[in-house]
Amino acid sequence: MENKITIGLFGFGTVGQGLAGVLQRVENNKAEIKRICVKNADKPRTLPQEFFTVNPDDIFNDSKINLIVEVIDDDKAAYGIVTKALNKGLSVVSGNKKMLAYHLPELIELQQKTGAALLYDASACGSIPVIRNLEEYYDNDLLISVKGILNGSSNFILSKIFNENMRYDTALKMAQDLGFAESNPSFDVDGFDSLFKLVIITVHAFGEYVNPDKLLNFGISNMSENDIRFAIEKSRRIKLVGQVEKLSNDQITLFVLPQLISKDKYIYSVEDEFNGVVIKGEFYYKQFMFGQGAGSKPTGSAVLSDITARYHNYRYEYKKRNRIRKFHYTEDHIIRIYLRYENEDDLSLFNFQQITERYASDSYKYVVGNINLKDIIKIKDELHKRNLFLAAYPHN
């Protein structure tokens, strides 16, 4: 990279403003924002108006700009920005995990073709550098699983519910007021954000890309007081968890589900808007990474970390994708789940192999049992249409 990074920034929302604020606090001259492209030219800004433009070409045609940073929430627009930059030989830092999750194989090829680099550690777990660690430290075949809380917004809500007996809607409103959750919270609380992050992590952990549409994600928006009471009675907490796990020498499985987490697990104590990731391997057992996963400054600082990495000419090598023995995704995996349902028609959707616990009253019905992941994926579109809640229920 050149002696100084001159940034063309796309987006000036929570993350963009966080980046600008962090850059102002850092006492170095390695990077500066030259131009910022936004959708609305008339909106009041925290920087002088001369920084802003609504024309992307004002950035792409500026020869002094040598790094594109996009932190917008529109995945289609983000894809256009990233591909245009890479095709021009401009390296990019991206925070759009949905765009990355759907287009990563293509973007890897584009980097190889043009020589430009794409960095996106900030897209996966906020302030936790999980991707770079998976690339550099865990670049061998000893890795068994990566599991954790990947979404700070949903974790904030669950912390308020379990620690302060707050109602779900009250906790959600507080998360929105603090800027941890969007006005439409489905992206966070229904597990989509965690799913997209998990797809990206899996590429760097095991070298396998899986299209998000093939995977199971189910969130916490249907969680009820009965589900919370069940978790407390079992001395557990509900956490929204994404996990990828090696099942054999050539098979992995991955999914995002609420999980009933016991007290002996690291992520049981991860609270508020923090993320926690447990990396498990042969011989070194478990290693735990912890940090803020939501908020303007933590995410802005994560973007700055990617920018600084480009200053030192860092790029992902995608080492696991060059593995001789490739991993393949499988849905054929037995998990134990807790299912709270409304009527027998709901229960009949689920092809349980074994039911180990059952309760039914006029107002509350649940079962605990073993089921194949592939049988849940078959009905995943139906799950969101019904008043039911399911959570993985791992054995201690």
SSE inventory with pairings:
Elements: E1 5-10, H1 14-25, E2 31-37, E3 52-53, H2 57-60, E4 67-70, H3 75-87, E5 91-94, H4 97-114, E6 118-119, H5 122-125, H6 130-136, E7 143-149, H7 152-164, H8 168-177, H9 186-189, H10 192-206, H11 225-233, E8 236-246, E9 251-262, E10 274-281, E11 285-292, H12 296-311, E12 328-329, E13 334-341, H13 344-348, E14 352-360, E15 365-372, H14 373-377, H15 380-383, E16 389-392
Parallel strand pairs: 1-2, 1-4, 2-3, 4-5, 5-6, 9-12
Antiparallel strand pairs: 7-8, 7-10, 8-9, 10-11, 13-15, 13-16, 14-15
Helix pairs in contact: 1-12, 3-4, 4-10, 6-10, 7-8
From the structure above, extract its key features.
Rossmann fold, 396 residues, 16 strands, six-stranded mixed beta sheet, six-stranded parallel beta sheet, alpha/beta
Total count of strands = 16
With strands numbered from the N-terminus, the spatial order across the biggest sheet is 3-2-1-4-5-6
| Large-scale geometry | globular
- CATH superfamily of the largest domain, by name, is Dihydrodipicolinate Reductase, domain 2
Number of distinct helices: 15
Radius of gyration: 22 Å
Biggest sheet descriptor:
6 strands, parallel
Spatial gap, N to C terminus:
49 Å
The low-confidence parts are none
Q: What is the residue-averaged pLDDT?
A: 93
Query: How many domain units?
Result: 2
| Share in β-strands | 25-35%
CATH topology of the largest domain: Dihydrodipicolinate Reductase, domain 2
Q: Tell me, what is the CATH class of the largest domain?
A: Alpha Beta
Structural class determined from secondary elements: alpha/beta
What portion of residues is helical? Answer: 25-40%
Instruction: Give the name of the CATH architecture of the largest domain.
Output: 2-Layer Sandwich
